[in-house]
Every structure is written in structure tokens, then in C-alpha cells.
Amino acid sequence: MEKKNTINFGAGPAKLPPSVLLQAQNELLDYSGIGISVLEMSHRSADFSKIVNTTENLLRELLNIPENYKVLFLQGGGTGQFSAVPLNLIGLKEDRCADYVVTGAWSAKAAKEAEKYGKVNVVHPKLDKYTSIPDKNSWSLNPSASYVYYCCNETVHGVEFKFIPDTKDVVLVSDMSSNFLSRPVDVSKFGLIFAGAQKNIGCAGVTVVIVREDLLGKALKECPIVLDYQVQAGNNSLYNTPPCFSIYIMNLVLEWIKNNGGTEAMEKLSQKKSSLIYDVINSSNGFYSCPVDVDCRSRMNIPFRVGKREGDEALEKLFLDKASKLGMISLKGHRSVGGIRASLYNAVTLEDTEVLAACMKEFLKDHQPSELKN
Q1: Helix, strand, or coil here: 173?
Q2: Torsion sign (Cα): 93, 96, 101, 103
Q3: CB proximity list for 30: less than 8 A, separation 6 or greater
Q4: Backbone dihedral angles phi then psi of residue 9, each to the nearest 5 degrees
Q5: Distance CA 279, CA 161 (A)
Q6: CB 342 within 8 A of CB 331
Q7: Which one from 15, 93, 99, 106 is the annotated catalytic residue?
Q8: CA torsion, ordered 356, 363, 329, 80, to nearest 10 deg
Q9: Quick check: 47 and 246 in contact, CB under 8 A?
Q10: Among residues 15, 70, 93, 199, which one is catalytic?
Q11: Does the annotation mark 47 as catalytic?
């Protein structure tokens, strides 16, 4: 029986480039001729040091990271950074307060966590629903804040910033977990960037932190040592045993991104892929609907409903069944939002996306209201 081609639209962990998986498979039992797997390798060995250093150098090259920034490979995911950011930075100024822009589930969780360590100011009126980015003119930024925090792509709700907030002289922090390395970024505009690897740059287990050197050494006394950026930077991310295999996989993915044109090429590809799906939604006369404002619709995560604006669950189940028969998986929307969600990370190809777009068009043709059967 012929094996069905599976297309993974998962929100994370997500699809990895097939060439990366094949290389990891080939090297699994014997990495680079040394006779053991990376899974068995001491993190103190010269071979692993080479992996860490190569990974950092690739990241610096791909993002043009200035020399006065440290690159850390940590554990605990983005959620760990919800704690680590305030624990390291909220004490930068005496008032021990921070500004948060809350545009979705993840920035909301980050703001709530930060409240344990200082005063949190949400800079805009509370949103009834996460489908837009509040007008910048409505933001009330506190010049005494230690930092301003935002999530530049909300995975659950599909809201993406197309601009970098101007915070004057206040340190800017961004969670880039779900659009990291999908476009060029001017790192020098940020005090700190973090990103879980399991969406665009690798597998679950490692989180990248890029932090400006002058922000190190300001951690609160209650900060756990494994979350202390100065300690981790001083030990080249090897204060404790790091997620070795996850760093190795990230190394392979970064090499793949470099060989495929870097962040500029990833951005062009992401625009082509997301346009394919949004074009079907926009031309469906309301059969498909995306609740997110047009100016902040994500290139990475596209949530949509089927049948009507608030969704027809019976039709959505039929759509998921049809997609599944065509080999597409992980299209069900987040449990808090419902509907469908297509995640189009770097490793998802244009061809993968074309299969989904064709499925949507065919389903529309078969089920648009005038043809619905009783």
C-alpha cells in the first residue's frame, strides 16, 4: 500500500525540513564519525562546544546580531521566559514596573506572570477580543517603566505586528516565538528577544534568548540561578546541562535557512503562502471568515471559520475530515478559539499550502449555501 504524504500544519511543535530530519537520522547513531550519538554526548566535550558555537554563529549571521548582544540557549520554553524577563529586567529602574501590550493569549499570560515580580501596566484599553492591535495613539507608555513587552505574533489568535513599537528610551522586549527568522529583524532596536525553537527553527526543548549586554547583572535576588541571564551568558549557556539534541537540530535548521536564502527568502515565501490562503478566504463571499483585522493578519498562523462568521461546527468537522483524507493534519483551531487554524511556518512549503488552498476551494464549491443539502 502506497504511503500517504502527510502535510503538517501544526502550530508547534511543527514541521521540520525533510533534509534536516534525514541528516539527523543519518547522524543519529554516529555523529560526525566520533562513534556516539549527540544524545549521548557530554555537554562539556569539544564536539558539543563546536555545535553550540556554530549554532550561535549561524544565528548571528542570519539576524546580523550586533556584538554587544549575548545569545543564550535555554530551557523552559517561552513560558519560562514569561518569568525570566521580569526576574531579570523589572528591577532595571527603582519603580520596578513594566509596560505590557496585550494582544492575545500569550502576551496576556506573560503580563499575568510578571505581576508576581512588580507592577504591570497594560498600555492600552483592555480588548474585548484578540483580533486587532490597539492604535498606537491609544497607548499610555510609562517613561519610568523598566521595559515594554509585546508578543509580535500571537499563535492562538493569528495577530502579527507589522511594525516595531517606538518606546523612546525604554528597553523593548519581544516574544518572537512564532515568527522568529521568518523575516529580517533589526535586533539593535530591542533590549531582549526570545523565541521557542519548535515553530520556525527547530524542535521543542530549546529557547533562544538574545539580550543586550548592558542588561545583564540586574536580576532580582529571588531569580532562580538557571533563569539568570548573566550566569547563563557567563557560562556560554552551559551552566547546567543544556538541551543538547534540540540545539543540534536547531543548528541543522539554521543551516537550512541560510542555504535557502536566509530571512529575506523566508519572508517572501511566507507572504506567498499566507496570501494563497487569505485570497481564498477573502473571495469566498463570507463562507470562510478570518476574524483578525486585515492590517495585522499573521503570515504564520491563519485562524478561520467555515460556513458563517461565528462558524458552523458541523461544516468545520466535515472540512477537517476532508483535509485529513488528503493527508493534512493539525488544522483544528486552538480550543479557546475553535474553527480552523493553518500554521505556515518556514518549513511548510508553497506546495503544501497550495494543497490546502485547493481543498478550501473545492469544499467551498461543494458546500456554499445555495448548494447546502437539508
Answers
A1: strand
A2: positive
A3: 36, 37
A4: -105, 25
A5: 20
A6: yes
A7: 106
A8: 80
A9: no
A10: 199
A11: no
Q: Is 78 exposed, middle or buried (0-12, 13-18, 19+ CB in 10 A)?
A: buried
φ/ψ of residue 214, rounded to 5: -70, -10
Stated length of the chain: 374
What whole-number distance in Å separates Cα of residue 362 and Cα of residue 364? 5
* The one catalytic residue among 15, 70, 93, 175: 175
- Which residues, other chains included, contact 306 with Cβ-Cβ below 8 Å and sequence gap of 6+? 287, 288, 312, 315, 316, 319, 339, 340, 363
Catalytic status, residue 139 = no
Residues 16, 346: Cα–Cα separation, whole Å? 8
State pLDDT tens for residues 123-170. 999 999 999 999 999 999 999 999 999 999 999 999 999 999 999 999
The distance in angstroms from the start CA to the end CA of the chain is: 37
Write out pLDDT tens, residues 218-227. Answer: 999 999 999 9
Q: Residue 225: how many CB atoms within 10 A of its CB?
A: 11
Helix, strand, or coil (residue 167):
coil
Give the pTM. 0.97
344 in Cβ contact with 302 (< 8 Å): yes
> 94 vs 118, 169, 217, CA distance in Å?
11, 16, 15
116 is catalytic: no
Specify whether the CB–CB gap between 98 and 141 falls below 8 A: no
